[in-house]
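Encode chain A's predicted structure.
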Amino acid sequence: MKLGTVEQEAFLKEHRTDFLKMWIFDIIIGNSDRHGGNVLIKGDTVHAIDHGFSIASLWPLGASDNEAWNRAEFLEKIRFENRRFYGALLDEQIPQELIESIKNFLERPGEQQILTELLEELYDERYASACLRRIKTIGRMLIESGRVIFPPDSYGSYIPIDPV
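Encoded structure for chain A:
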């Protein structure tokens, strides 16, 4: 699909919720490399591909926070990349069914525990804790605003990366 075409605009409009879900997912995993080449469109379905530049890739298992990566540099990169790819969604109203899904997850500690345990199996306790904090923070932010927002200079305070 050629960028800027009527066909593309119609596709984006029809799949707005899919792109909103992708945006939320990218912020949760800290993906700083989302661009048109990392989205696969197959038929009438949108797939997010290539998650190589997410927090897990920048936070090696067993590394201390100082060894693993430069937090400020990472936050700047994710803020810039998310704005560039998802900029058309800025201030977009989040569909009520997506807000309800977020609320449901935030109200179910059992499901949060299952996610934490699965992430601990894949990564470690520190990463799982940081990921769950991001989900909770982003969830509250989206429920309160009801819109897609890109926090300006305080992005890091909205998107906690480090575990408590």
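The chain has one domain: 6-158.
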